[in-house]
């Protein structure tokens, strides 16, 4: 089959690889209909993970049709249209039983590759051995382990372009609002107007926030967040963000600050060798006393000059999540079916899989107004 593979730093190519096979009785094989780029792919694309190997298939978010079913699978049958959560989770370990699928103990079993200081999080699609080594969704077919836990039927009323974002971006946005404990009346500030930042804004509005402000410098993304998510745009090139947030909150600062800037190829928010420290520091300084700062996405390195004194002085709560849990996917699909949640506008570029390198370049460089590139095998 054809698949989009990592070749070297900043280089991907479509290659012929072996078709996936059922390896465990809880597996299904999915024929991919849509897959999309995501921010978690960019550190891999840049070659930052030493465990990534040439030929590894990328793609954390995808949707497709079940074509083969393992004998222990109970919730799916051949022909089902499913969206697959980005986290691979067993459903039975202590963390999964608490609904913390992104912390699953059993889906990333390569102990030799795990960082002993960090421990293991859940496995993920399109990730190297330390994250389970599961081939990604930028392919014609994908093996989905623990299918009854991580694959979800798509309602007939929801088309592929909308349902695709229930794999990761929409759950990540909802999770960010939950981690921030957003309440009615809150002032919420979100750094980053990509797909996850926009869907965090949508979730904060649905949870009753009085003001939701999205901070970025890309005008088309800010307009999209305003039009589709009910957020107020703040262009940091023309605005003193911290002062604006104090003005909006009676001098206190934002109740909840979310850092969703992802991996940036250039610009104020981070860079190719840093993990968005500018946005993180600004969020800490802009948050009110006893407020919450949430950090989302891939942050593989270290951040120096972190304002720990501000965190302790202001009694801030700092929470982080690399990937969302799976428990919210059915609820979000239901909201999509009721037309409460629209995500298809995030698919700004639709390309055949053969143009995967072009799609990733557009996504990485935020070129031509690209928010997400969606591939069709």
Model description:
By secondary structure, the protein is of the alpha/beta class. 25% of the residues lie in helices and 25% in strands. The protein has 12 helices and 17 strands. It has helices at residues 41-45, 94-97, 147-150, 160-163, 169-179, 195-206, 219-229, 241-248, 277-286, 308-313, 329-337, 356-365, and strands at residues 2-8, 11-16, 28-36, 61-69, 81-84, 87-88, 123-124, 141-144, 151-153, 187-191, 211-216, 232-235, 254-259, 287-296, 317-321, 347-352, 372-376. Strands 3, 4, 5, 8, 9, 16 and 17 form a 7-stranded mixed beta sheet that branches. Strands 12-11-10-13-14-15 form a 6-stranded parallel beta sheet, sandwiched between helices. Helix 10 links the parallel strand 14 and strand 15. It is globular, with a radius of gyration of 20 Å.
Largest sheet: 7 strands, mixed
Shape: globular
User: Uncertain runs with pLDDT below 50, 5 residues or more?
Assistant: 265-275
What Rg, in angstroms, do the CA atoms define?
Answer: 20 Å
Rounded average pLDDT: 91
Helical region count?
Answer: 12
Query: What proportion of the residues is helical, as a percent range?
Result: 10-25%
Query: Would you list the SSEs in sequence order as H and E?
Result: EEEHEEEHEEHEHHEHEHEHEHEHEHEHE
Strand content: 15-25%
Amino-to-carboxy terminus distance: 10 Å
- Total number of strands: 17
């Amino acid at each position: 089959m054809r698949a989009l593979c990592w070749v070297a730093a900043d280089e991907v190519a479509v290659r012929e690889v072996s078709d996936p096979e059922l390896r465990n009785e809880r597996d299904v094989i999915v024929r991919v209909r849509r897959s999309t780029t995501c921010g978690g792919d960019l550190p891999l694309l840049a070659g930052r993970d030493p465990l990534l190997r040439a030929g590894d298939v990328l793609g954390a978010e995808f949707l497709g049709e079940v074509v083969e079913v393992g004998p222990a699978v109970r919730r799916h049958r051949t022909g089902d249209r499913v969206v697959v959560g980005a986290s691979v989770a067993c459903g039975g370990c202590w963390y999964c039983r608490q609904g913390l699928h992104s912390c699953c103990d059993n889906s990333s079993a390569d102990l030799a590759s795990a960082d002993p200081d960090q421990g293991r999080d859940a496995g993920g699609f399109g990730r190297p051995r330390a994250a389970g080594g599961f081939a990604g969704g930028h392919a014609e077919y994908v093996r989905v382990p623990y299918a009854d836990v991580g694959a979800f039927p798509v309602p007939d009323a929801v088309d592929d372009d909308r349902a695709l974002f229930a794999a990761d971006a929409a759950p990540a946005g909802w999770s960010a609002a939950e981690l921030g404990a957003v309440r009615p009346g809150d002032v919420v500030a979100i750094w980053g107007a990509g797909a996850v930042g926009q869907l965090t804004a949508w979730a904060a509005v649905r949870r009753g926030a009085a003001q939701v402000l999205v901070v970025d410098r890309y005008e088309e993304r800010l307009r999209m967040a305003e039009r589709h998510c009910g957020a107020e745009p703040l262009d940091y090139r023309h605005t003193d963000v911290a002062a604006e947030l104090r003005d909006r909150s009676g001098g206190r600062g934002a109740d909840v600050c979310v850092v969703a800037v992802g991996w940036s190829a250039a610009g104020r928010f981070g860079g190719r060798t840093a993990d968005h420290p500018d946005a993180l520091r600004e969020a800490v300084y802009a948050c009110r006393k006893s407020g919450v700062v949430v950090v989302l996405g891939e942050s593989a390195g270290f951040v120096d000059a972190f304002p720990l004194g501000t965190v302790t002085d202001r009694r801030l709560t700092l929470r982080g999540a690399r990937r969302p849990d799976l428990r919210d996917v059915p609820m979000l699909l239901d909201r999509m079916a009721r037309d409460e949640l629209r995500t298809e506008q995030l698919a700004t570029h639709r390309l055949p899989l053969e143009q995967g390198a072009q799609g990733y370049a557009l996504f990485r460089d935020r070129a031509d107004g690209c928010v997400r590139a969606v591939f069709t095998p």
